[in-house]
Write the structure tokens for this entry.
Amino acid sequence: MAVPQDLFYTKTHEWISLNEGIATVGITDFAQNQLSDLAFVELPEVGIEFQAGDEAAVVESVKAASDIYAPVAGEVVEVNDKLEDTPELVNNDPFGKGWLFKLKVSDESGVDDMYDADSYEELCPSD
């Protein structure tokens, strides 16, 4: 299971990278592995505002559908349109080309409640 050291993580298996007030959001390698092959990704609309913990997107696989939660409060400024035609990017590259959406963060202190890589790894059950 890949857990990049430079990201922040939630207990619901989302990750963010923070760059100049913009949070890129995706699901972790652990989450995509649990879901298996993604068949569909429903992304939020640009301009929608979320509070931390709000349902923001949905990913569906042959196994199940899973809600994706906004890890921090903010406004959606970009979505990964490539996932409409190629949702498997989330499986193949969850921390790169498989990102889901970007938020203009309204309160960066929300990151303080997230896990670093080592703490997140401890949270995930091992096989």
In short: The longest strand covers residues 55-61.
